[in-house]
Amino acid sequence: xxxxxVKKTVFLLxxxxxxxxxxxxxxxxxxxxxxxxxxxxxxxxxxxxVDGLRFAQASASAFLAAGGIGCPGWRKHxxxxxxxxxxxxxxxxxxxxxxxxxxxxxxLFVDRxxx
Length: 115
What we know:
Oligomer: single chain
Number of strands: 0
Shape: globular
Largest sheet: none
């Protein structure tokens, strides 16, 4: 029973992380920049080969083209992408790391660089 609870918790955390990646990519400051749709994520490439990388990029691009988080039902769409990633053993770790660094640098310097 404890193992099932851990698996459920891990699954929920992965789902939340995937949603956060899509949300951040869909915000004005990051849309179309350094996201799954645009980066040759070596983690995706390692796990799924060229086909896995292309699948992930196409999935993220389709999500954004459909309206991203501004589209009704976006969570269901994002969850469907997540499920497809899990089924293919894909993890956008490189994109997540890049996003984390972009947000970190933004938090450090946004006030210093503003006019």
